Amino acid sequence: MPTSASPSLVRRLRWVLIGLLAAESVALVGVVGWLLLELVTQTPSSYATALALLIMVVIAAVFLVAVTVSVLRRQAWAPSGAIVWQVLQISVAIGAFQGLFARPDIGWLLLIPALAIIGLLIWQPVRQTFRSRAVDR
């Protein structure tokens, strides 16, 4: 695979990366809203478990929004944070393909963007945009 690419292609792919991360962020914030609505309107079998789940998803949403904003700002740490999130998302996707309550549709919705984002982040021209920003400071 060639490591050099036109600057316009790299710029477009960087915006694709930002768009995918932003879509994941919006989806996760939506999950927070849904969990909060469920906690308020339904009676959970365990309030402690429901609250713990809500807190964990809020922490994940804050992390993902921070990573998305950092990718937008081309901060040097952003690709590693995004890859960590994508690996976690891939593990959830694999779990969605298996078991008694398997949901392959959700598994594919989680797996495809995660693989695309990892591919974009490890591609040398896109990766270089984060390094050049760090060197400019």
Describe this structure in words.
This protein has 137 residues and is mainly α. It contains five helices and no strands.
Helix/strand structural class: mainly alpha
What is the succession of H and E elements? Answer: HHHHH
Strand-residue proportion: under 5%
Number of helices: 5
Q: What percent of residues adopt helix (DSSP H or I)? A: over 70%
Spell out the blueprint of helices and strands:
Elements (H helix, E strand, L loop, with lengths): L6 H35 L5 H26 L5 H19 L7 H19 L1 H13 L1
Describe this protein with a few key phrases.
single chain; 137 residues; mainly alpha; 5 helices
Summarize the structure.
The chain is mainly α and 137 residues long. 82% of the residues lie in helices and 0% in strands.
